[in-house]
């Protein structure tokens, strides 16, 4: 198989061929913006799939009945007996399911997809109907998130063999792509050949996964599957080192959390106790033949192949110990969902329509299976009992209150305070677009002051910000505590508070108002931990001329994201505040 001029595109084309050979055993996370490169890869996958293999698309906000299957209501009412209807998962059997904006999947939908992938089937057991449909399909998770903080659900990403990133692939690479495979020949090879697996292959891939910091056991299992497919694709009867190298590059390298440093001791001669008189390794006369017949796979060469497949810059970050950022479980949610008498419908439950809204379709679904028993001879009326009644479950999103806690002390020099005010104005504009309530807390001298009560008025917020004075000590603990008290009040009022703290992190006034950096720093960290214990999301913007370790430690104690001011232009600030408290 010839490689194209762009290595990332060549690997993506190879992954498409392997997915086409076994969609249910592989799966893909495809990180790419909508455009010609992504569409070219999807077109290539469709062309490589066997004839008749379905390619379905998961709609946003799909209901459980539509995904897993349920009652066919018209047929059930017409026949008077339960008639099951297959869902999207069963209709995707033998093919692939495309999931647009997979980073926005709800946890419930992601869990149901993961369960279907593990079982290879979906079972409908509802209202007296029991049916089982095969559902072996592959997922193509289209990751369109902005940055590394928006990722697909971990339960699905862990089950996908390939993690591809096509954002850096130029459009011109499509024309220079490897030639399409002869699908009939490839499928014949894959079906006719069941490549043998050397005894040490599993040990090698498991050891590589451990060296790369991969904790999931699915990664080496998927790598073994990909190695078999690669060997079958190349017509080999036994999995060889090139197949293991391809599996490591395609499956293990994108999952790497760390990278082993160069080990000079690996090339050093063995200790004297393990060598003979001539400096050669001591040999056991009984295992010479075994060593010749079962030569171990060179995992260093496989690791080098995996390193060559990493995107530019990622290897350096892994070697330095900087792991890829992961999205927190609560990120991407504005406010909190609460049961309400009005709001967005999220399903139905048994209940009294006098205490909620009648769910007509769900009520008919519950009543349909029992009509044959309830109807008299020749009676055509639909009989509905109290046990059939369903009412809607509604969710109403609570509005968000963004609390700005601004360091106005002397440590934030006058020019930095001016930049901080400019940053707050940009954030205020972002909150105004999202229709958030905003509040302003300033701390300087001996304590903290509430300069602006929660409001939606952008004019009042800017006026209070313009009048913000500067100078004095840094009572950081008092500022965090004041923001926490206001957040508690807003939460009791049914709103979701978010704290945006602008400071350099260098406290010098403790909670009692006494000077002293050591005690002041300890009090600030304690206040930050208390804020984190309340589950209040936050963002710490470091206003110092250079990033400060004190501000980083403060963000870690708050459980908040850290953003240094020198790197915080308007776009980054707007993106950061959206990630902390996106619009509902």
List keywords for this structure.
five-stranded parallel sheet; 17 strands; 584 residues; 4 domains; single chain; alpha/beta; 18% strand; Rossmann fold; six-stranded mixed sheet; 22 helices; Helicase, Ruva Protein, domain 3
Helix/strand layout:
Blueprint: H1 7-21, E1 28-31, H2 36-48, E2 55-57, H3 64-68, E3 69-71, H4 73-79, E4 84-86, H5 88-91, E5 96-99, H6 107-119, E6 121-126, E7 129-134, E8 138-143, H7 154-157, E9 162-165, H8 183-192, H9 199-211, H10 218-233, H11 241-252, H12 288-293, H13 299-308, H14 314-319, E10 337-350, H15 360-367, H16 371-374, E11 390-397, E12 400-407, H17 414-433, E13 437-444, E14 447-455, H18 458-466, H19 476-492, E15 496-503, H20 517-533, E16 538-542, H21 549-558, E17 561-564, H22 570-580
Parallel strand pairs: 1-8, 1-9, 2-5, 5-8, 12-13, 12-15, 15-16, 16-17
Antiparallel strand pairs: 3-4, 6-7, 10-11, 13-14
Task: Write structural notes for this entry.
The strands form 5 sheets. The protein has a 6-stranded mixed β-sheet with strand order 14-13-12-15-16-17, sandwiched between helices. The protein folds into 4 domains: 7-181, 3-Layer(aba) Sandwich (Rossmann fold), CATH 3.40.50; 193-261 and 297-328, Helicase, Ruva Protein, domain 3 (Orthogonal Bundle), CATH 1.10.8.80; 338-396, no CATH class; 400-580, von Willebrand factor, type A domain (Rossmann fold, 3-Layer(aba) Sandwich), CATH 3.40.50.410. Helix 19 packs parallel to helix 20. It has helices spanning 7-21, 36-48, 64-68, 73-79, 88-91, 107-119, 154-157, 183-192, 199-211, 218-233, 241-252, 288-293, 299-308, 314-319, 360-367, 371-374, 414-433, 458-466, 476-492, 517-533, 549-558, 570-580; strands at residues 28-31, 55-57, 69-71, 84-86, 96-99, 121-126, 129-134, 138-143, 162-165, 337-350, 390-397, 400-407, 437-444, 447-455, 496-503, 538-542, 561-564. It is α/β, with parallel strands linked by helices and 584 residues long. It contains 22 helices and 17 strands. Helix content is 39%, strand content 18%.
